[in-house]
Amino acid sequence: MGTRGLLVVYDRGNNKRKYTRIATMYVMYNAYPDGFMCLLCEYLKDRVIRNGISNTYANINGMDDLASIIVSYMKYLASTWQKEDRPNKTPLIPSGYIYLIPNNTKVRETDADFVYYLYPPEGYEKLYDMSMITTQSPTEWLEIPFMAVRVRAYKYDWHNGKLKLLFNGTMGKYYEKYCVHE
To answer: What pTM was computed for the model?
Structure first.
């Protein structure tokens, strides 16, 4: 048994005022605060979020793209950890470790110990400002560092069925608090 968790990614809804849950991921192990979230930070810390792609490996094309990159990277990580019974096929995409589950799943309906909510960074709506998009070249479009993505981390208390807030801030601050060990 591992430390299980949920990772939920939000984007701005059509009205840009409410958040919309776009992906809910169930992670089977390494869900403690200095676990998979630190691996994601380390992998994505040099990327930027922007509207449009100018550099495939340096950009994240919105929160929906972030969600798909997370699933892909977590599956890749699982392939590096599971060395036995490897087929001679490329790419090696194993079953397990991370699952996409219905967005309306409640924490109490899972066995998650930790829950992480990712929200768009401050200024995110400016990425989709049509006046900027139509008047500037793509190389001049706004970019926001991945480390500015906002995260809320919780420990789920199974005794009272409530979430206990562990962290509320940016991915950069999360990384400093849980992932950087001197």
So the answer is: 0.88
